[in-house]
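User: I'm new to structure prediction. If I give you an amino acid sequence, what do you actually give back? Let's try with this one:
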Amino acid sequence: MKRLLIKQPEQVKRQIVEYLRSSEELKFAHKLHGILLLLSNENTNCVEVAKVFGNTPQALALWVHRLNQGEGGNIEVLKDKVKTGRQTRITAEQLKNLKCALGKTPAQYGIDAAKWDGRALSLFLAKEYGIHLKIRMCQRWMQKLKLEKDANDSP
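Assistant: Good question. You get back a string of structure tokens that encode the predicted 3D arrangement of the chain. For your 155 residues, that looks like this:
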């Protein structure tokens, strides 16, 4: 059978890896799939699977070691533990509205800025929600939302 070609394979691979890392359940499924690949062929090793999966060989080795702990065979050990930490000040609903707002210009919200940056986002959050975040934290939020500083400059 002729090998099928995928257009822009690196972009597709990056999108798939990002998707698989987007929720705890998908991360768990990703680990299980990696273990299945290791189990499916005795000649397959962590390096080969890691290369395909975008993980390090050490990560796959850690998954195998966790799986083999105790009597072994319990896939639940591959689930990530709940990480505690400071809760965000921005609710899920506010975050949804924020993504929508960042698609528009700051001027549409009465903010004196040509494009979105940390300062403009800080002013927006204070004005709309009464949330006071420093500029650097707003820059992190923008990065987390995968927005570039010149998001409004794109055609």
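You can read the tokens as a compact description of the fold. Here is one thing that stands out. The chain has two domains: 9-78, 92-153.
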